[in-house]
């Protein structure tokens, strides 16, 4: 029996034909190989990203070490300056206190110098109710409260 004699025997009937199953398995294998190659490409990209990330991490660690060294140097400089300031305060403290006493502000906070014309105090603002202002004669005659413009009708109203 030859292979060509076996092919009709493998065909079978309906859905369960062996040829159809072989074709389906081949298509499945092609899909799986495609996925495998895509996964390999993705792994290569991820490895490149990992290498870049490790390089950036190394740079960041170097930067941190450099900044820690700068912080230590600046801390030592700050401590030295603080000691120097303390020594100068001890040395010149009495002189600073004498100057502060000599230039002390002796005017109470509620006294205000108004000798400058620009610093003159303002007068009180009249906030009496309108009926009191009317009774005192501070308001002019109100003949037409809804009227806007001059009192006599001979003059035109200016357009804005």
Report a brief summary of the structure.
The chain has 160 residues and is mainly alpha-helical. It has helices at residues 3-11, 18-102, 130-135.
Describe this structure in words.
With 160 residues, this protein is mainly alpha-helical. It is built from 3 helices and no strands. It has helices spanning 3-11, 18-102, 130-135. The chain is flat and about 120 Å long.
Using brief descriptors, characterize the structure shown.
160 residues; mainly alpha; 3 helices; flat
Task: Describe the secondary structure blueprint for this structure.
Elements: H1 3-11, H2 18-102, H3 130-135
The tally of strands reads 0
Structural class by sheet pairing and helices: mainly alpha
End-to-end gap: 114 Å
Count of helical regions: 3
Biggest sheet, open or closed, and with what strands and sense?
none
Helicity, as a percent range: 55-70%
Shape: flat
Portion in beta strands:
under 5%
